[in-house]
Amino acid sequence: MGIYSIVQNVSGDRCELLENHPDLPCSKSPIMLLSWPNKAVDYNETPQNVLSFFFVLIGMGFSFYFRRWQIQTADECDREQITPSDYTIMVKNIPRSQTKEDIEKFFTEKGKYTGKTVIEKVVLAKKIGPYVDNQRKLAKLEIKKLANPNDPTITQQIEVIQKQLEEFEKNIASSGHYESAGVAFITFRTDTGID
What we know:
The chain has 3 domains: 2-79; 88-127 and 183-194, no CATH class; 129-177. It is elongated and about 110 Å long. It has helices spanning 2-10, 14-18, 30-34, 46-80, 100-110, 129-147, 152-175; strands spanning 88-91, 119-126, 180-188. It is mainly α.
């Protein structure tokens, strides 16, 4: 469309007719020859209007296609990077003997959308309360020790807690098993699984 307009402007004769006009001077400079004022006096706008219409249709088609491509790309990125805040529910009071596979099977088979529910991830909460409590106690005792560096009672308490923490860590490292807290976080592929 732009090329068509440039050809029409260059082949026009309006600037020649107005070159010596006192009120509307139109010089034959390269800029004026390529611009709209140089169109032919008897210029027919129909071909340019038809071209404009087809380019609008092509632009709309391209925009529609591009938007669909954008949505598909966003969906693929979302699927690859699902986080706990996306489509996740928390389920409490799960029997502590249940495994991830048991929970996934239960929600896939018994869910509202049976067969359509796709579970991305199941995370079982582990019971580490005593470990966290000991970490907090240790931090408080270390602060007390800074104030009283020669107090043997504080040193003994620190050693006892450090041994308890080491034992907990060894048990986890050797067995690889935490005690279940009876809570699971289930992440679905879409929000329809949450219903």
